[in-house]
Amino acid sequence: MKKISAKLIGLIVGGLMVLVSLLMFYQFHYPDTGTVKYICFTIYSVGIIISLIIFKNNNKEEKTFKEYFSEGFKVFIVVCLIMAIFTWIFYKMNPQIFDNMINEINKINALDPNKTPQEVIDNGEKIRNIRMPMTVAINTIIYMVIGALITLIGAGFLSQKKIH
Q: What's the rounded Cα separation, in Å, for the pair 74 and 15?
C-alpha cells in the first residue's frame, strides 16, 4: 500500500473544509459563522486524527511522540494556510458580510448620546479598515491552536508504550 503524505491529507482536509463552507454559505444560506465553523472544526479534527492513525499503521515499529506530533503538524499547517487564504478571498468576495456588521455597529453607536454622527461614521471606517486582517489573523490562530491541541492529544495517546 502506498503511503499517503501528511501534506496531501492536509490539502484534502483543507479542500473539504473550503467546499463545505462554500456549500453551506451559498447553497444552504447559513451564516459564515456558527454551524459552518463547527462542521469545519470537526472535519479538521477528524483529518488530523486520521493522519496520525495512518502514520501509526504505515509500519508497525514504535514511534515517538515527536514523530507523531511532526506528522500532525504537517497536516494542520497546510490546513491553516489554506483556510487563511480562503478566509481572505471569501470576505473579499463577500463584502456585504462586513458591511452588514458595520451597519449594525453604527446603529448601536448612533443611539449613544455621547457620540456625534461623525464619530459614528469614523468608528465604522476604523472597523472596516482593521476587520479583514483581524478576521484572517483570528481564524488562523484558532485553527493553529485547535490543530496543535488535537495533534498533541493524538500524539500523546498513540505514542504510549504498550505494556505487556
A: 15
Residue 135, CA distances (Å) to 28, 60, 63, 114 in order: 23, 42, 37, 29
Count CB-CB contacts under 10 A for residue 112.
Answer: 10
End-to-end CA distance of the chain: 29
Task: Indicate if the pLDDT at residue 7 is higher than 60.
Answer: yes
Helix %, strand %, coil % for the chain, to 5?
Answer: 80, 0, 20
Compute the distance between CA of residue 154 and CA of residue 48 in angstroms, rounded to an integer: 8
pTM, full prediction: 0.89
d(CA 46, CA 61): 24
Rounded CA separation 60/125 (Å) = 58
Interval 72-97: pLDDT, tens? 999 999 999 999 999 999 999 999 99
Instruction: Dig out the grid coordinates for 24 from the structure.
Output: 453551506
Please, which residues have CB within 8 angstroms of residue 119's CB and are 6 or more apart in sequence? 109
